[in-house]
Amino acid sequence: MTITAILIVRRGPGADAPSIRYVVPYTPGQSVLDGLRFVRQALDPTLSVRHSCISANTCKECMILVDGKVAYACTARLEPREMVLQPLPNKVHLRDLVTEIGPPDERLDHALKTLGCVPPRTPTR
Ligand code: FES
Question: What b-and-e string marks burial along 84-95, b requiring 16 or more CB atoms within 10 Å of the CB?
């Protein structure tokens, strides 16, 4: 018999957000991100999840709520039980588990460049 984990993914912030239940195979040592990557590969390619370094814990892009607590999906352990995953509640929600996590200065620079404007320079002392 295959041991499974059940990922309840809320596709938005708050308890009222629509959620989807995914059953994924469980192997000891796997991360929540491993489970989410399985979902994207085998069950639902529309699920949006952000990650970059995968378990190096350097990019911080996989930060989500796991059972109501802020965690890195790449280092949080997948467990053979029901786990509730949500996007960060205090960030701008982009899609599914993805929120805007870039520093405000970088977002402003990017927005200005996108609009064809020159970003303001920080005064030097
Ligand atoms: S994927 Fe980089 S910290 Fe999790």
Answer: ebbbbeeeebee
How many independent structural domains does the chain possess?
A: 1
pLDDT tens figures, 53-78: 887 878 889 999 999 999 999 999 99
Question: Per residue in 86-106, pLDDT tens?
Answer: 999 999 999 999 999 877 777
More confident residue, 18 or 106: 18
In a domain, 75, yes or no: yes
pLDDT at 124: 65
In a domain, 121, yes or no: no
Task: Give the residue, out of 52, 64, 98, with the most ligand 1 atoms within 8 A of its beta carbon, to mutate for a pocket test.
Answer: 52
User: Residue 47's domain spans which residues?
Assistant: 4-114
46 CB under 6 A from ligand 1? no
The domain that contains 29 carries what CATH number?
3.10.20.30
